[in-house]
Amino acid sequence: MPEGPSLVILREEAESLAGLRVREVSGNSTQDLQRLAGKRLHTIRTWGKHLLLDFGDVAVRIHLLMFGSYTIDEARDDKVPRLTLRFTRKREINFYSCSVRFIDEPLDDVYDWGADVMSDEWNPRAARKKLNAMPDTIVADALLEQDVFAGVGNIIKNEVLHRVRIHPQTRVGDLPSRKLGDMIREARAYSFDFYHWKKACVLRKHWQVHAKKACPRDGTPLSFCRHLGKKERRAFWCDTCQRFYGEGGPPELPPPAPPRRRVSRR
Predict the structure, then answer these.
(1) How far, in Å, CA of 90 to CA of 94, rounded?
(2) Using only C-alpha atoms, what is the Rg of the chain?
(3) Tens of pLDDT, residues 184-195
(4) Which keywords belong to this entry (predicted)?
(5) Confidence of residue 265 (pLDDT cuts 50, 70, 90)
(6) Partner of 131 at 20 to 30 A CA spacing, among 39, 41, 107, 122?
(7) 113 neighbors 121 (Cβ within 8 angstroms)
(8) Angle of CA points 132, 138, 141, to nearest 5°
(9) What string of H, E and C letters represents the secondary structure of the chain?
(10) Domains of the chain (ranges plus CATH)?
(11) Phi-psi region for residue 172, left (φ > 0), alpha (ψ -120 to 50) or beta?
């Protein structure tokens, strides 16, 4: 699933479409896409993992889900677009394998821009207040709460917790105030690092623990859980340098599920 920094890159690539009028609209979305015909695209915004095409009286929310993609000024021959917008000046944008939704309310009434870790309006104090209201939530889940850290995904989660040396099963309420502040600060800082590395096509080279085998700090084999916490997302961490805060040590993890057997189809 594309994380917040990837959506900012998409916005930057598409922002030259702002100001153009929709000449033709199509796609296999179940939404009434013809609502957009003839409308002028005012602005393109992002909130977390949402791309927002603002047409003034209506906005289109694009969520790329797990395997969504897009093209600008070209089309893929191997996929049917969920949404195609052809503009004046022979410009177009295509979205594939994604969620398309209309938003009729003003975007400022729908979105808390202060929760977006990539936004100029990011509000770390509000994030801390929200986290203090969920003391029993493990930090691996808390970092994925989009109303707290809009845009943070699983890669950022794993890398941030390694940076700040916090075990992913630590409960938010057990974190010292300083470590909670470290986690909030690095959620934003790492997101901007992700953004710069992704633009330079070197993101994977900078991963420290995500999809890795050993900790680069101390050489300890990394621990791994395929479905950690209530979010049930993949987690990678180092039991040597990532401290568990709380009594009694981290909860015992369930045994890994056996690999699925492939059924041969003839």
Answers:
(1) 13
(2) 21
(3) 999 999 999 999
(4) DNA damage, DNA repair, DNA-binding, Endonuclease, Glycosidase, Hydrolase, Lyase, Multifunctional enzyme, Nuclease
(5) very low
(6) 107
(7) yes
(8) 95
(9) CCCHHHHHHHHHHHHHHCCCEEEEEECCCCCCHHHHCCCECCEEEEECCEEEEECCCCEEEEECCCCCEEEECCCCCCCCCCEEEEEHHHCEEEEECCEEEEECCCHHHHCCHHHECCCCCCCHHHHHHHHHCCCCCEHHHHCCCCCCCECCCHHHHHHHHHHCCECCCCEHHHCCHHHHHHHHHHHHHHHHHHHHHHHCCCCHHHCCCCCCCECCCCCCECEEEEEECCCCEEEEECCCCCECCCCCCCCCCCCCCCCCCCCCCC
(10) 4-110 (3.20.190.10), 113-237 (1.10.8.50)
(11) alpha
Single-letter residue type at 188:
R
Give me the residue label for tokens 């100029």: 120
